[in-house]
């Protein structure tokens, strides 16, 4: 193979192939090459150019200057991607603006509302969108919205959920019609403008129209009050950070907590910090984590004396022993409890021996996997909780979703409890209590920041007062509250949110008005408490999801329509010892998977010395590769070999496992 055979014509042929076949390309970290007015990742272009010239997609050069010089030699422009102050690549628009009319043929009904709610844009084979193209969404001759394309278009026939809507709006549901996910911005009455030169879908070439659209897009968060806090934080009010493992999702979550939702003060004791830290976890997880670390059956008295369990218990509780018993009985096997099945939890985890000591049932790894490493670290070293600021006011709650998480855990539910605190067996009278979940409590905290002590007080107030109070709250960074949801894709979203999913929408939030100043908020009656409930407009809901576990395309459609998605992919730090290693590794993974969702992130290498490389691969990366390739040893070896990582000869000393050397 000789890469010197590659010519400008091979590059143009590669671009033609990519466009004709709608090939998804691995995004570049720092540069784009502009060809025929569109931006492409340079290394991907050279891989396909090599395919045209040498019948192979292997490209030996690394990204950046070693690849860029070939394209510059052929007369193509290399553009550095814009970066923010932290060096992260921003979502810069291409120079392409396209008009999309919202009637699929003369006399067909407008599909504007449908694509707005689904956050998509429609196109066809004769004019395909590219990521970061800007779309003028028109009704008649008026531009009502702008949309930035997020991903390459897919055939509408690949999404059966679109079929009914397409039939309703008389849109062809055929292979040649495409749709692409998009970031939407709906224009206010003052921002709307006319474009009457062409009908249907077409490129916008008129400079004044293009410049006006781009200017509005770039300043889109400065006009509406509900966007004021978004620009303060840099996120939309409902946001999911997504990406492969090790790309900084949890890091960013912690940064948002610290920078935007914590009011600073003076020193707080480690015991107080411990209580705050364990409060985010369900009690069954804390008991399970304690049992796992002790690795032996324990009595209720021993559990009560554990510092982490004590921190979780309400200090004012009159029956702490009863609380422990209720949790154990709710998640116990049938031989360890007499509790009626309908009052038990959704899974069994604990078992009691003949000495009334408790432990974890065998073969419960799937349930135990829901317990985060952060909680395990707290249980192992409760005394090492760092002191914080006593006047720190944490304006957020945090939760990790798991497969068994339910509406009753999240919003509210009726839970069984024991009345007699002294019983050592299940002989107490069975009572029930209404327990509020973390989402309800987060909404209540946001409500209090806006000036209401309860949902009843807010609902009974006058509309004008609600509008005024929430307007002030939205414009005051100190009046924002957040609910952080880690691993949001692990739960059944439809079951967890229930009917409240609609209330998450910005225009359904408490105190929000339309362009005419009329309230568009929505209230519902909760099923258990019969309390009137609404989601405050000063509450952020920020989640994370690991794309290696589940693709965005598989997420519940109702969730996708109501959340903005912010991608976090690996960063390659110039000059870092690990940068070329990580690039080569991800190139090899992409060659096998053809999907960037399975990349390895930079976080595994940050602040590590080169001498740690073998440990990083053995303890972090190889286990992930085994998971990615279902323990297919040949595939994992291929990835490591392509990455230049040496492998020990399999044998009894390494238990015949793949071990880096």
From TrEMBL:
It comes from Chitinophaga varians. InterPro entries: ATPase_dyneun-rel_AAA, Methyl-DNA_Rec/Restrict_Enz, P-loop_NTPase. This is AAA domain-containing protein. GO terms for molecular function: ATP binding; ATP hydrolysis activity. The lineage of its organism: Bacteria, Pseudomonadati, Bacteroidota, Chitinophagia, Chitinophagales. It comes from the Bacteria. Residues 395-563 form the ATPase dynein-related AAA domain.
